[in-house]
């Protein structure tokens, strides 16, 4: 990774120290990032907060032992990231609403929860945003899609973009497209992991050991992903170069094309979008 220029951010609170909250925290702990007055993080149970006991840049609060934890954590914070489960997110926003700074922006990462729902929980005039990161954020290779609420200023939007840029790329979209984006990049790492699982199993069927199959498949996935990005070439062109007429790859691609992979992916994404609508409806 190239040397990054210093990034100075105002106080930030993360409510919920689960996998996504911690991934964002790791980005904010990058050497080039300075968060004024440190990063505040809360969690329901103690164990998670204990993990940060030796990190001077982080202040941790535990809600199971301190009923005021979330409210204390958000006071003075300019960005409040809500990283609890979707079913808990409106309740936690309503809990802290009265303690938010006037110019704070609330960013929910909850799948399916709409800007209108977040706005209703935070208060009609509050700045609220929806963000949909993905798990490669853990290694700062995430993609985060974002939708911006009507009371968010350009300065607040840029601030939130720079927070999520610490864990990867950021794309701003209209809210109507956020569920579709979630079905691509939010859920997408699981599609790739599933492909890797199935492909490794097929490799083991050919007599390779677990370790050999893992190396062959994972390094091929890594190499192909890095090649398509580094070369700037279209995937069709790169595929054409591997596919000699009447060669082995051509036969294999014919089988995959025959299974109509595009239609299968579309059906899978439609299922994810339907579930996002159910979550928004509280189902
Ligand atoms: N994981 C992903 O790939 C992903 C991707 C995009 C978006 N998201 C979104 O990110 C959110 C969190 O997902 P996750 O996978 O990180 O879930 P998770 O690992 O279960 O994290 C949620 C955390 O919130 C804590 N919590 C619950 N209620 C709390 C409260 N009132 N105050 C403070 N902390 C509280 C939980 O603590 P306890 O464990 O002690 O109960 C837990 O550590 C979800 O809304 C999800 O839709 C996740």
What does this protein structure show overall?
One of its GO terms (molecular function) is pyrroline-5-carboxylate reductase activity. InterPro entries: 6-PGluconate_DH-like_C_sf, NAD(P)-bd_dom_sf, P5C_Rdtase_cat_N, P5CR_dimer, Pyrroline-COOH_reductase. Belongs to the pyrroline-5-carboxylate reductase family. 33% of the residues are buried. It is elongated and about 70 Å long. Helix content is 49%, strand content 16%. It has 2 domains: 168 residues, NAD(P)-binding Rossmann-like Domain (Rossmann fold, 3-Layer(aba) Sandwich), CATH 3.40.50; 93 residues, ProC C-terminal domain-like (ProC C-terminal domain-like fold, Orthogonal Bundle). The chain has an 8-stranded mixed sheet with strand order 5-4-2-6-7-8-9-10, with helices on both faces. It has a two-stranded parallel sheet with strand order 1-3. It contains 12 helices and 10 strands. The chain has 283 residues and is α/β, with parallel strands linked by helices. Bound molecules: NADP nicotinamide-adenine-dinucleotide phosphate. The site of NADP nicotinamide-adenine-dinucleotide phosphate has 29 residues, from helix 1, strand 4 and helix 4.
